[in-house]
Automatic annotation (TrEMBL):
Protein's name in the database: Protein-lysine N-methyltransferase EEF2KMT
Keyword Transferase: yes
Any one GO molecular function term: transferase activity
Keywords of the record: Transferase
Gene Ontology CC: protein-containing complex
Family as reported in the entry's similarity comment: Belongs to the class I-like SAM-binding methyltransferase superfamily. EEF2KMT family.
Native source species: Thrips palmi
Domain FAM86 N-terminal span(s) in chain numbering: 6-90
Superkingdom field: Eukaryota
Length: 336
């Protein structure tokens, strides 16, 4: 298998936009007059016929788009196209999405994370069932700061479908990782994704995650790699009004793409304040879709006497990042 085919396999499995894939790198191998058809079959086995896709399928429209682009590129080179490619394209055209679709992230350390997400960006009245780019940036930041997170307690706000938390648990070995969200559909998908990637069923009776004031909020707990993990129902308003921060006692609070709705800025900023007051350090990965919106949130943090530092963007060292949007990393502490 060539490096180009391995790269395309990683891009395909993780759902990278077909328009952003570099087909030029791989077409030479596929159009080769001697090995071309064999290489084409190999590429199928690494993409649409990959065992992960058979068990946890990608969105059908995405697979169709990939195959059409592949055929177009091969035809443009005048290559002899394997009959298997045409057969597979026809099969996909006749296929419809099932109830669930997935993406698979092959990390550079050899780990593979399979995550169920929504077919649509907005589903069940929430955007939390979709994987956003800031999560990729936050994963790379955590990997870069692995020594800091190791053996610590990490709380993630707005965990969504869980990609970031699963990656951090596998890569950084925190002692305890607490996923949190509040939307029922998101919570159910989060539980499913952690079970898929942990290989165990877990239970909410795990003594290592016994948090008496919060036990009625824990939907699931168990282990992922060497980390004790829990999934908690934690609306931001409850964290503030019920003073839950001391019970959670995280060393680090992390979140990605939670700064987008001005209507949520007040409870989010107050939640950040609650945790910094008990000594937690808060790390936010924020997509700058609108600079005015982001600045409004930063001003709210400043009004609460919080110290905000922008961290350098990490290299995409463990998971690829598409530069469709600017993502900024902020480290927030109390402004003593």
């Amino acid at each position: 298998m060539s490096i180009a085919m391995r790269k395309m396999s990683q891009q395909f499995l993780s759902g990278v936009s077909v328009s952003k894939m570099d087909f030029a790198e791989v077409i030479y191998d596929l159009a080769n007059s001697f090995f071309g058809e064999s290489n084409q079959d190999t590429l199928l086995s690494l993409t649409v016929d990959h065992p992960l896709v058979a068990e946890y399928p990608l969105k059908v429209e995405y697979q169709q788009s990939f195959m059409r682009k592949l055929v177009k590129e091969l035809e443009a080179r005048g290559a002899e196209i394997s009959g298997h490619i045409y057969e597979r394209l026809v099969q996909l055209i006749q296929t419809r999405n099932g109830e669930k679709v997935f993406r698979h992230f092959m990390l550079d350390n050899g780990s593979v994370i399979s995550v169920r997400e929504s077919i649509s960006i907005v589903s069940n009245g929430t955007t939390g069932l979709y994987i956003w780019q800031a999560a990729h940036v936050l994963i790379n930041w955590c990997f870069k700061n692995n020594d800091m997170l190791k053996n610590s307690t990490v709380l993630e706000l707005g965990s969504g479908v869980g990609l970031c938390g699963i990656a951090v648990s596998l890569l950084c070995n925190p002692l305890r990782y607490i996923f949190s969200d509040c939307h029922p559909a998101v919570m159910n998908a989060l539980v499913e994704n952690i079970k898929i990637n942990s290989g165990i069923e877990g239970s909410n009776d795990d003594a290592s995650l016994d948090l008496p004031p919060l036990n009625d909020r824990i939907m699931w707990s168990g282990k992922l790699s060497d980390s004790n993990i829990a999934i908690a129902h934690l609306p931001w308003e409850d964290i503030v009004e019920q003073q839950l921060a001391p019970a959670l006692a995280p060393n680090y609070v992390i979140a990605s793409d939670v700064v987008y709705d001005p209507g949520l800025f007040d409870p989010l900023a107050k939640t950040v304040k609650e945790f910094t007051t008990i000594g937690s350090q808060v790390i936010l990965a924020c997509t700058e879709r609108n600079s005015g919106t982001l600045q409004e949130f930063l001003k709210k943090l400043d009004s609460l006497s919080l110290k905000v530092q922008e961290d350098a963007m990490p290299e995409a060292s463990i998971i690829p990042v598409c530069n469709d949007w600017i993502v900024k990393i902020y480290r927030i502490t109390n402004n003593y």
